[in-house]
User: Fold these one by one.
Assistant:
Number 1:
Amino acid sequence: MIALSLAEIAAVVGGQTHDIPDPSVQVTGPVVRDSREVVPGSLFAAFVGERVDGHDFAPQVIEAGAVAVLASRPVGLPAIVVEDVQAALGALARHVVRRLGATLVALTGSAGKTSTKDLIAQVLRHKAPTVFTPGSLNNEIGLPLTALSATEETQFLVLEMGARGIGHIRYLTGLTPPKIGLVLNVGTAHIGEFGGREQIAEAKGEIVEGLPQDGAAILNADDPLVRAMAPRTKAKVVLFGESAEADVRAENVRLTDSGQPSFRLHTPSGASDVTMRLYGEHHVSNALAAAAVAHELGMSAEEIALALSEAGTLSRWRMEVTERPDGVTIVNDAYNANPESMRAALRALAAMGKGRRTWAVLGKMAELGDEALAEHDAVGRLAVRLNVSKLVAVGGIEASWLQLGAYNEGSWGEESVHVSDAQAAIDLLRSELRPGDVVLVKASRSVGLESVAQALLEAGAEGEVAAR
């Protein structure tokens, strides 16, 4: 964070200093909410959770070098006490962002937010110092923490914004007002909470409403609900996609033999070829979104294409591709799942597995409400249509819907199986995998299928799978 004294911070957040001998002492390190992340000069934000009270860690964090605790009650150690720690964190982020003068880029969408945010950050880092949301810390706590990690050298701040209801993104843009706002897509993720895709579009579109007139709204030309957001902003509208009407578009899209996308990138200032290190055709849209942002910030088509071709995976468990010594390829995409990302991952598996035996180890997609049965059934059917060799549906009723969809689509019988939990899936795969197989692991985060991918990687390292 930019250096601020405890007195300045208390004034910004409307707090009272307690047990602080010298209010002129500065916070020079990051603002953190996890006591394990404290370094000398930090400010520790104490949140009260269901099981853990951050105030209890005050002695530990002060000993580790924290300058003070941002707290909702006195802790007997240096603290700035406020009524609401979350609101105070937001106020501090808003103050720091105003002081910085960095260009803020905010993005949202139903699928692909984190992958696209990582791409944007990797491209913009070729131009200037860039700070971006780590992982998926895109809510009312994670976003301020990211903004507060910027320093005086930061020129670009890339912020992922999530929403679980109307007004959420409006709140986040109020804390960190973007100059560039990007909407990737409107899908069915969290549709059970929103009630419909139109309501999701209403919420996602909040990101462009507050953009300044000299800003830019980057919208997906291939998604009608996103494209329809154009009248909601006074900023310049830039379209990306494969549509001929897109300002930033892709032509000659194809997948390499290993399933990595290649295409000709067209921007208003020129064209250049891209071959990505990431896997799956769905990354083309993500790359075009990143390219549109970078073009608006002054990068040439050649610079953007080079950066996109070099970009890798920064966030864990998102299409992480690892080949074991025996030739089995594990695709760990277990961080989260919704119908759109599930379909994209299955298509990537099919592309990667040409001439090889493919396994789709799939689990529940959460928060789909009344659409849950139909969406799980559709994913199971798609696995058959893509000629995935084996479907392993893991978990409860939703997994049974996955298997039923596969069975009804192609009478798979032995080609699909429903197992009770992750350990059952591990046991099955350990006994049946053959060298050269490709395994996709994907489900909503609550299912915990990353344990399957990890166990299979460990088994390969230990040489458990013999050639069959």
Note: The chain has a mean pLDDT of 93.
Number 2:
Amino acid sequence: MTDLSTLDATAQAALVRGGELTAADLVDAAIERVEHLNPLLNAVITPMFDAARAAAPTAAGPFAGVPFLLKDLVTEVPGVRFTEGSVFLRDNVSGSESELVRRLRGAGLVLLGKTNTPEFGMVPACEPVLHGPTRNPWAPDRSTSGSSGGSAAAVASGMVPMAHGNDLGGSLRFPASACGLFGLKPTRARVPLGPEYGDVLGGWAAEHALTRSVRDSAALLDAIAGPAPGDPYPAPPRTRPFAAEVTTAPGRLRIAFSPRLPDGSLGHPDCLAALDDAVALCTALGHELVEADLPGLTPAVGTAIGTAFNAATAWIVEYWIRRLGRRPAPGDLEPLTEAYWAAGQRVSAADYLLATEDLQAFSRVVAEFLGGFDAWLTPTMSAPPARIGEITSTPEEPLRALERGAPTVAYPAVVANITGNPAMSVPLWRTTDGLPIGVHFLGRFGGEATLFRLAGQLEEARPWAAALDACVGDALARSRQRVSSPSLRCRSAIVS
């Protein structure tokens, strides 16, 4: 018998369509799991349980009744607290609804609450001062990475089968790696950011989700993709539903791979082992693997990335100053954010536009490189999940989180954000200590179909569901509680 906590969203939705469960059953069971697990993991920081129970009976769409969580960054729900992980926003409540939220509801998903994120999503960890650290279900003394860490912990522990995340430099893919999940960052503008934003940082930001299965990621993207009125530009149209790609053979792909970081050094041995395993698996599946470094990652490109990031931080803080009508008081911003904000205020308009030109030139180099390959493969992260407390800053050491976090994410996941290309982290490997390590595929612009085909093939060849099921069980055991309601236990274990 299989518990609901180990079913993906597609399977849960099928139970409702088949009349074996109601949407209310799914929602009640998920709420009970959140209540049991959250004291251990601190993944959900703003529950919406009453609203979820009220919405469940009328949920309609491909994922009707499936419980879902929203990352507390960018995406807004009217009347719900919206903090972006910052003390500065501790009392902020959203007054409008994001287009993405409308589409999620339209797909039948029932929103259970908001998940934890570092302040403004700016570090590869999930330990904001406002809400405290989210812990990794695989090892609670370890980080989930970031910035979609709360959502990753919620999915990996079985609270919900999938949860929203966003990605400005790897924030979907890093937590996917650290928590043993599938994480796809879509093509630029595939999912709209309106009505509040047209794009963010010239299209670096992308919205999607962390999922247990590849098919969930594809079907969800089908439900939320497409431009909204007034968007500055659209993504290339898909030729058919992404869900159809997951079960389509990818053919023989030509995949470049590299173990080297941009400075020529190598990542952690565990990450290199994950890469070696992925290369061997892809070769066994009939693909052509060619060792090749991504060209164009020069010091000038690194400088341009830093300029753009600092400018983005200044924009974030100034955006909230304008929206809240007040400036941050002492202690309202974390030390690292203060440091980034100060650096961003020194970036001129000319500096930013020159950096943009440099990054656009780099994007053309990447496009030319990928003209000869279907994907570029590396480890997702350059180190296993860090210990809680390692990637944090203090007033005395404001850049400590940057200095400690950067070595964990030294492979250039940000390339997908700069170029707008799709990319994915696939959970194929675990360390001898049992920690998950993902591998990363960068695809061609608009090329989600190829990535979904490859991911579906990899999932079939090396299923990761059993490892996730074990993680769910371990998390429940660590919580020192069990789902004890006889009626819920009966209703949540009906699939043989």
Note: Residues 335 and 397 are 8 Å apart (CA to CA).
Number 3:
Amino acid sequence: MESKQSHSIVGIWTNACRFLLALVFIFSGFVKAVDPLGTQYKIQDYLEAFGWVALVPAFLPFLASVLQAMVEFCLGIYLLFGIRRRMTTLFVVVIMGVMTPLTLWLALSNPISDCGCFGDAVTLTNWETFGKNVLLLIAAVSVFKWGNRITPLVTKRFDWLVAMYAFFYILGMTLYCYRELPVFDFRPYRIGTDIRKGMEIPEGAKPTVYDTRFILQKNGVEKEFTLDDYPDSTWTFVDSRTVVKEQGYEPPVRDFSIIRQEDGEDVTDEILTDDKYTFLLVAHQLSQADDSSIDLINELYDYSVEHGYQFYCLTSSPDSDIEDWQERTGAEYPFCLMDDITLKTMIRSNPGLMLLKNGVVINKWSVNNLPDEYVLTDRLENLPLAQVNEKTFSHKVVLVLAWFVFPLLFFSMVDVIWEHFHRKKKLKLKENRTK
């Protein structure tokens, strides 16, 4: 009796761990697939923290981003449906066995403030991430040890169909969001956002206090200084680092400062308070920017000049790269300088186009989906693309469910019906034999 009861408890525990891991892996893989460039940037942060940037080919972080999203999502689906149990539980326990000590190191050394395990959808501190991974590691060991207790939701007749559909679904989602823009935008520059409000600190909120340390050298000896004890000019600057001295309120929009390249003037307020429309061509690195749509970009600039709208190209590129871009593309629009990380956060396309009015993000386009002459048939005031018309979050969730969950439910229902029909047929044959 006791053995039967313990067997039941182990089965319940194993399946509870299985569903927990499934939900976490599906969510983690999905948000990475929705924003593959964001995951790529996070991987590059890891490489910088390890000092491996020069050793890794430029294409590898993006490839790793795609593979990570696909592996996590598919493993989550396999766990959810209880298919490929031996392979799935082995992969999950290996992944958690690697990630748990890695996040412990991140928590202790803090080279990166956010591990990026859930992209921009959910931000966790390094210690919160480590705690989460400890819990998942326990669950992973449990499902690996008692994998035979996992109850499958489909028979082996249909498990290949679920596995194949999960693979192609997440691959298609990743490629679509890379070519266009993320289906779900969790960043502070999503359509409909008032950038000025995002920069505000609520009354009474205490801002974060930072401490900048300077590493200087003299006579071959390096020493660290603060602003209070900064030495004389006999010391040579080597490096600097900024650390959080006291954590306070962090506004969603930070480091949003636009400097005109031509004269060094700050035009941030001028752009954010413009009651007309402003086009912002965002290209964080012009040397890496896609120039396949240069003619269309130049036509957009001509359109903005004709109708009296502002048009700026925002970049963090050096002057030499800006000059090279102008020579290659014939660009006549003005350039402004901005923080590289801010530009990557604003739009996941290089280049990408944003439309602002009174500091509100009206619309965004990737380089593969820029508005052309067939769309820009009138002034922006009279066109639907210049109105905030973002699909609601719930509407997007329904679309995602329609394209993924409903087909999987359909497969499961067909499997149940087929299994019922098959059993009924076998039972009828058995009855006929006994007669």
Note: The chain has twelve helices and nine strands.
Number 4:
Amino acid sequence: MDRLSGLDASFLYLETPEQLMHVCAVIVLDTSTMPNGYSYKEFRATLEERVKKLPPFTRRLRRVPLDLGHPVWVQDDHFDIAHHVHRMALPAPAGYDELMEIAGHFAGLPMDRGRPLWEMLVIEGYHNRDGREEVVVITKMHHSTVDGASGANLISYLCSLEPDSPALAPADLGRNEKGPGGLELMGRSVLDTLGRPLALPKLVQPSIDLISDTIGRARAGTTMAPPFTAPRTSFNGTIDGHRTVAIADLSLDDIKAVRKATGATVNDIVLSVAGGALREYLRERGELPDTTLMASVPVSVREESKRENGANKVSALFMRLGTDIEDPMERLASMAESNKNAKNHHKAIGADTLQDWAEFAAPRTFGLAMRAYAGMRLAEKHPVIHNLVISNVPGPPMPLYFVGAEIVGMYPLGPVMHGAGLNVTVLSKNGVVHVGIIAAKQSVRNPEKLVVHFPEELQKLTDAVSQGAG
């Protein structure tokens, strides 16, 4: 029985009509590389052949009776690609603005939990900023199925290294099963629930040790940024169900040049660029707070985790973004030091701590609590936990071909939530860093006014590095 881990299931419980826990991506394709040219009929047929070999695409949820335990994954005996892959043609002339509008609309639509939790929208008639026509695929997968890293890997398994090569699908993604019947499932869940208190002492002592360690680090000034200390901004409140999207590209070579000159890591530079972009965005709106914004930064623990099951194997850092610092080089230096402290502090937290505590979530109670939190608009009443989520997802360093079409852009879009209605995710691929921004519409109506500052802030760093070298 492939039971959802507590962390995977938590993304189901967190979902409300306004807070949709999807992981999306805008994938821009150059169809001129396709051996037989582009045809939607052939494109979908090839895609269907590939997804059927990957269990995460053909499994669906089965709830435990009375919600006594976390759901399980079972084979969808009625899998139909038509329920998951949809086609749309943009009216001519259609470009970036129209694409972003469609991406935001698609990201704000819920998925049918009675079917495998993924969808793709194939968009034809898109003209890029150079006027060239391209096909765009917008993917959507539920966070209970993937995290950022596993989502990128799962999409890559549908791809190939050459236009006419077989897909990269691995042979070790598991298999789908029919799963146990209702009575058996309920019986197993009852036994699992009864056994949870026995595991509690194993969690309590490490947590007490962690608190003690954190107090010591705080006194020494080497702790990560504490939650509930972020300043309130216009994107830190109760969100609606509508989404806005914006994308941009950064040069990986420029980032590497800054890294070489300063000794900062790529992640330091990305976070510093994001901090500078947010500073400019809020300054232009007359909303720049005196204290720095704080981001929650997901961290993959796949290599350290001892858990075998679970699609999500992540922890998180809380990072100060230096939005109170005007000079880009000074901000980067501050970011590098802050990042170092946060990483060292994070090492003291067990890789599976978040997953272990998530196992104690009572499904029905958790879901009701989340809906009460949204309904009472509590995100606007307590101190801000963090201002936004920023993710840095490593991608392939070589060209990839999606059903024979070369991927020229792959822009990830993470979920937004009550209290943090803005998400920034970056993915490096083949020498380019793709930036994806998604927000609740009432929080950020025009994310384009934010994303334009990302290339500008990187340019400020490269200029400063060049002047220093000169």
Note: Confidence is low (pLDDT under 50) at residues 182-191, 193-201, 203-220.
